[in-house]
Amino acid sequence: MLSTWDPHLHALRPATVLPPSGWAHLAQPTGDELAALVASGVPRAFVDHALDRDEVPRVDRDDGHLLVILRVPLATPTETLPFRTTTVAVFVGGPCLVTLSREPLDLSEGLPHGAVAPEAPNRFLLQLVALAAARFQSCLRSIERDVDRLEDALQASLRNREVLELLKYQKALVHFTTGLSGNEILLSRLQRDPRLGITPADTELLEDVQVELRQAIEVTRIAGDILSQMMDAFASIISNNLNVVMKVLTSLTILLSVPTLLASFYGMNVPLPMQHHPLAFGALVGLSVLASLGLMVIFMRRRWL
Predict the structure, then answer these.
(1) I need a surface site. Which of 2, 71, 292, 294 has the fewest CB within 10 A?
(2) Residue 158 clears pLDDT 60, i.e. is over it
(3) pTM value?
């Protein structure tokens, strides 16, 4: 789907053709849209790299065109993992700035006013890296809320379902760590490459982007460490909960075995004490109750129940 930047609305709006200037964004592009992009002068190899789901963040230049690829987080509740990362490619050098993503991403949400300026693509690239870092942190907050919910459920759980859910979030954090590390390397290359036009006037913005990116990396690292420790702890909790249930069931089995044993004795076809006494049944029931109560007191004192 093709959309173009409207500076008055400060948002992307649907379009049918690439504009002669400004910013165009292709999300889940069709074959015709990709053909139009190649016809505008963007090298076909750049388009193929941009569509690669596993492409790492990097900078490439060919025939006056610049390709910048970074990774951004993506919520995927319908897939195996609740969150993962995807690529966003920026093409610089044509009549307009063009961004391309395999997924339906709205990159305009969160961009500050004045970020989109075709005559200064360096600032747009820096703002885009900052936007990716902010979205990483937003997804991390969502993961934290979901993990807190699973933590409450795990305290009384006897199943592995909650632990497996935590494992999914741990895998998502691995994707986040890899994506953020790649974006950090990309930012360093943007800073060092004189062809990208990072001027001294962009120093303050560059420092802000570096802070946002380092904060996202640190939060991801801390969240991963905490989640790893939580999984170990909750695996022990589930095992302990199961042991408690088995202990209670074993104790109840022993308590119920006493009346069964006494009843088995008096069910034998041999002469037994008081077998003809009219109160024999009541005495047998009373003896069974007293024996079970005695065992219960012993179990409770030993904290077996």
Answers:
(1) 294
(2) no
(3) 0.74
